[in-house]
Design a protein that fits this description.
InterPro entries: Glyco_hydro/deAcase_b/a-brl, NODB_dom, Polysacc_deacetylase_ArnD, YkoP-like_dom
CATH topology of the largest domain: TIM Barrel
Number of domains: 2
Pfam families: Polysacc_deac_1, YkoP
CATH architecture of the largest domain: Alpha-Beta Barrel
Oligomer: single chain
Organism: Paenibacillus pseudetheri
Protein name: NodB homology domain-containing protein
Shape: elongated
Structural class: alpha/beta
CATH superfamily of the largest domain: Glycoside hydrolase/deacetylase
CATH class of the largest domain: Alpha Beta
Keywords: Membrane, Transmembrane, Transmembrane helix
Amino acid sequence: MQTLLLWLFYISSFYAFIPGMISRIFGYRVFRKGTGRNEFALTFDDGPDPRFTPLLLDLLKKYDAKATFFVVGSNAERYPELIRRIHEEGHLIGIHNYVHKTNWLMRPATVRRQIQHTNDIIYNIIGERSTYYRPPWGIVNLFDISKRRQVEIVLWSVMFGDWREKLGAQRLTEKMLARLNPGEVMLLHDSGTTLGADPDAPENMLVALELTLQEAQRRGLRSIRVDDMIKMEKSPIRHLSFGKRVIVGLWLAWEQVFQVMFQLKTINPADPFMHFRMRKYKGEPVELGDGTLLSKGDKVIELHIDNRQLFELGIHSRSSAQLAIRMIRRMEKGLPMLAEVIAKDVNLAQAKALYGVSMINRGPEKFGFSVHDLPDGIFARSTKFYLKILLSVIHPDGGARLKERSEVLVPKLILMPVSELLKKMNQQLPHDERSVRKRKPQQEEALSLNDSHTEVELPGATVTN
């Protein structure tokens, strides 16, 4: 009996668990995130529902938002007028099986019949077939990803657990606003009748969605259909080789783990390009640009560039110069915000310097950073190896860049006194009875950059995780 159970575990893992992990982590043969500048995608599963879908359609119409509805075939068969309305109001209809049952428990032929039957129902109602499919719970099996047949599998980049009523409208709103970014594919539910869902949960979803759409309008973001996002964006990771997709997938997964593990804070949540944390400096003494000495144990603000943002910048840049210009523009936006954050926080203001590790040879000086060699050792060698691998993936010139200019791709220590940052950005250290330092208000000209960016050497990340 034990042997039989073990074999069942092996078979199920090979059939569904492993393919599911590959598709989720590496995006293998599925679409799960775009790279739009101002667009995100709202997707709704498990409907149509006569109670909530009409209210949802009214809400989307009110804010001129387009969405994608992955419908359960049996529900579509029962409520054809809702399918017709979804279509007539310009939304995309996708397939979510005829019954809401995981593909893990169905044979390939059964899954194929589920998809086909639902597609036939959709065709009989609106006269068009769907080519987009989302398996229930996002679980794909080996045959789903080995050959996608006539449909494209669409997963999601973020889900919120909105099928649980106890989550509440306020908490759901907070979670949605935290992930309201370009390129996101949001998973929501317009029905609470499926297994494990609470019947009244979509009420909270509608409240949270309206607040999210209001915020999206304020930021200049808009919701589009998944097919439009795919056509417009065609996420660059899908065009990489499988090996590079593995590297990028692991890298982006590590980004999430690192941020949680080390409690990184984001300078601007609406544009999460730069993160930071307070820590103690552990290296050899280094003289800063203002003549002060950074010693072991001094507090520093460690900077981190968001890996996903960096990847998207690199993959969409046609040349090193273009990548450099784009990163400079993002830094120009981020550093003044960081200075404002420091000026309002007594604890951050006690840090002696901004700190990071970079493969930039020229460029940081324009912002006020000084560039120093890393002491030779395990950290320097491992950092160089790590950054060079990533650079081969995200840099516009890829591996060719490494072969031609490998001698300049050396990780460097970049430092700037916190006082210098505040001075350049017309900010002051906060005054508090607990402050250990006091300064007079200083008025200096804001940071300006040389108009020519062609001299900037910018490989991978300004600071890496």
